[in-house]
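debug: dumping io for the single-chain case to check the tokenizer round-trip. Nothing else runs in this session.
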Amino acid sequence: MDDFAGGMSGPKAGATPLGTERGSAGRKGRDSTMIEDQEALDLAADWADISQGLKKDLGSQLHAQWIKPIQLGSFCKETGTLDLFLPTEFSANWVADRFADRLSLAWKIARSEVRQVRITVHPRRRSMPELRVGGQASVPARAASHGQGQMPGHLGAGAAMVDTALSGLDPSLTFAEFVSGAANVLAVNAAQRMAALETPQFSPLYLKGATGQGKTHLLHAIGHAFAANKPGARIFYCSAERFMIEFVQAMRSNEMIEFKARLRGFDMLLVDDIQFIIGKASTQEEFLHTIDALMSAGKRLVVAADRAPQALDGVEQRLLSRLSMGLVADIQPADIELRRKILEHRLARFGNTQVPADVIEFLARTINRNVRELVGGLNKLIAYAQLTGQPVSLQLAEEQLTDILSANRRRITIDEIQRTVCQFYRVDRTEMASKRRARAVVRPRQVAMYLAKVLTPRSYPEIGRKFGGRDHSTVIHAVRLIEELRARDADMDGDVRTLLRQLED
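debug: decoded output
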């Protein structure tokens, strides 16, 4: 019997060289496997470097909780897509929401062929983990107890809604990390009252604000503060969508009694994105009963949504009435002063990283749609600077944050800037392009060049052409000079601030 395995014997004389063909195919197969193995090793090595860098940026706690569980998936060379897997839907969504840009940038720097990073649940791990309360995972027979008679560690069929140490609360989202200002002072004060030991004068607390203005942060902060003020308190955070998923699973598995008992056993219930409970009659009914049970037992309820209760289309009147019976605290879009404070507060996390004042001012003025984009822009800019070894600068911010900046910018033109500056300094519009070098003309022209660079996406050469065909080096000199004057001359800084307000209003 011929043995082709491993090439132990050759073909018979005169026979078709089948063994040679198979041997060649085997070598090709082994070569292909070796290449794949090497590529996998290279990916793993790159991920080790990226992960270590993120650990330095984020700190050990956040890294261990969100980055360390990531598993490398496959890399498609044709599309340039790299898959990263997490064990649960919650953690995958969380990482995608908060770290997707940073992960994508790090991989693109490590491997130029990576064009897209896709963060999903591991295909074989789509079941959700059991609920964790007070830092211990619940078990089917008896819950890790904060008191007697606690129900098993799931709300109904399947698993629970959260996968962090304290009932789904992010350890980084505390009151200490929340920056307050005129736009959110009512919501912050109400949130702190809700977390205090004293019984709040209002319940439930309804936090209303547009996407990215801090609602979710305040929900988590309330949970952390209440846990600190009342050790052993049972606190639960979930999204309205997750509430509905658990409700349906409980119905399908005939575990509604356990679901209701478990849910109403918490001392504080925090429900995010309540607008997504719209149109689900049975879920609305159960949520209504849950509110009534919590209120009658003196428990605390905080909900958040992107609109007022009365604007929740498809929600029955009884539920709207319950949601409106406490305090509706509005979170307004952050004004320029609050955006500055948020950026300065966030900078403290980056240690010795130097971010010039003009970059902070530029980001605060330009990224004005929501706080999440503002912080994300700063994070992305600093991460890119650290990973490439470049200093943070206004030019780097403009180059790397193109998408964010273009989405936030009101289209202010250089013509509009020139017209506003000329009216302010009472000079003729023709002086913006003239060759005159009198101080009364030169300074307004330099201020206009500076504002053109700060408020428009135009390059230095483009700005120069709008000012009488001046060289780009003249514009650079003007921008740097006005920056220096603003730093040491209060009158100049006041003039620029006034012009900025006029142009942005």
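debug: round-trip ok. The first strand starts at residue 71 and ends at 76.
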